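Form P-L/3: holo structure prediction, ligand adenosine-5'-triphosphate.
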Amino acid sequence: MTMELESVPGVGAKTAEALGSLDDAERALTEGDVATLARAPGISEGRAARIARAAIQTRHDDHGDFLATDRTREIYREILGHLQDRTVTDDAAARLRTLYPSAAESRIREVRAFTREALSRDPDPAVLDALDGVEPLESPGDVRVRDRCLVTGDAERYAQAREAIPEVSVEVVEDTRQLAELARSYATVIVLDEEFAGVDVEGDVRVQPDALDRPEAVVPERTLSFFAANREPLQAAIAVHRAADLEPPCELEPLESALAMLDEDGTPRGDGELDRLATAVDDLDAAVSTAESVANDHLREAIEERDVTIEGTDLLSLVERGAGVDSLLSRELADEYDAAVAAAREHLIDALELTDTESIARRAFPDEPTYPVEHTEEVVSRLREELTTARDRRATRLKRELASDLAAFRSAADDLVDAALDLDVELAVARFADDFDCTLPAIDALDTPENASPPPEPDVPGDGGVAIEGGRSPLLDVPFEAVEPVDYHVSGVALLSGVNSGGKTSTLDLIALVVVLAHMGLPVPAEAARVTRIDELHYYAKTQGTLDAGAFESTLREFGDLVTGVAEDRETLVLVDELESITEPGASANIMAGILEALSARGATAVFVSHLAGEIRDVASIDIAVDGIEAIGLDDGELLVDRSPVKGTLARSTPELIVEKLAADGDGFYERLLEKFED
Ligand SMILES: Nc1ncnc2c1ncn2[C@@H]1O[C@H](COP(=O)(O)OP(=O)(O)OP(=O)(O)O)[C@@H](O)[C@H]1O
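OUTPUT (holo model):
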């Protein structure tokens, strides 16, 4: 087990040990269950996500260098944020972190299969509502059970017993005398050794050599406390399965009714007979004293109503014999006394709903007349004992039955919750796709049958690159409804020119977004898109202002590494935003031309946004495509822009547009100025 874990890159002996403390580290690792991994001591969620990703990368032989620059990582984080905003449970949000852009075809294919499934899901509000109560199942700490013990004479079996059933004490006995002693202090003694079979000891002593194989039979409390602790998430997971019409891992009704019979503290509830017995034990004293009052009230009334006539000689003899009023009672009021006692007995039986203890209850009030009527304490004690025993026996039986019903659902319970949490992940993807009008992109070089007939294919030349039609980035600083669709196709190296604030940076963001999502195996926010599978995405955001000599040198080195350092056989996409700002314009144009030449030579796809596109093209020794985001005109000093770059067009700059507008008024100065732009 530990060996397995240590084969994951980045998992050292210490981390493997921490993960090993989880019951199901291996499962969590293969399923990308980040939240469970993060429950290992000292493992943060971020670290758990890295470990889960590393395990996936190992499985797919994926180098894991796809996100090659800060800006690419930032784009990935923003995508993840949008996805995580759409989960109901924290657990699903954590699981989403295992979706990452991968260079490995098999991984992309695997997630695309998941995505297809996800896109067929309907994020029904009832499902989302039910998901709210789902959370990973917890294992409650070991319960202590003190009325039972396990017994063996064998040291090895003793160790096994302590390991298998830590909830009860395990005792070593050598002889019958010691066993008898234990039988006096525990309600039940379970003997693990065959040799003790047939030994005659007083008490509840059971010889069960196979007890360790069925721990839930020895301690039904284990099963009951697990299900009691997890009742609500399980009920929610059942509701999710129903609302979403998921194929359940077990029958739902029996699980549901078994859960309904379980109290929060792990005791069975809802059993009329147990409730009756428990109430009878609790109410016994009160019912006895009420029954007494009933009898006495009855009798008092009867006496008050009666004229008792007694002959003088009779009275004398009664007094001389020292007889009390009781004998007077039995002589004169026998019928009334009988009626009073009968009423008391009925009350006791009715109030406590007694059935099989009815005959004992009758004897609680004596047949011999007394006034006031009094219960016989011995009989009441006996009744209490009978009721208590019946109650406890019933509770134990119910516990055992319920535990055995529930034990059958133990592994289905995990699957049930897991499926609900997975659905939450799928629904987040479905909602992301829906909210941002996404489609699954076609991916070149993903040679699979599922890709043989891709969705409407944007016309992109066969030699790779990226093609986007109607792409709308959710990362823009405007509400998504206001985002104008962008069409852009690029393959090989290209310069992207355009007016100020025309949307050049946003176009690079859109390309990066589409490429990252496509390599995550997810749908992209476009009407259609086609992406070539790449190994590394390098996106360099605009640097603020001119760099000093040192920073300039290190930036240059970075690009040097990019053209010479990245392995020749790695497919690379390079996006660069206004690199000219790092130094003076003349030098910048030379540097950018040189980098583009080198990238072109190694067959990379690259888009460089630059205001110096014309100058770069002039100094480059190869033909570099120049695309342009053009202004369609000026309206009240505001530029009207067509957000889709026009292929093969150097966009006019904003100053040129303004000069053109002024020249239109026929002023010679502006006309001459305009000619200079057109040279
Ligand atoms: N497709 C679009 N739909 C709607 N608004 C957009 C779109 N693209 C860009 N914008 C708006 O235009 C603004 C400027 O975009 P962006 O920064 O991409 O322009 P730029 O050409 O890179 O500008 P600069 O030349 O100053 O670098 C964005 O902040 C956004 O508000």
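COMMENT: The chain has 28 helices and 15 strands.
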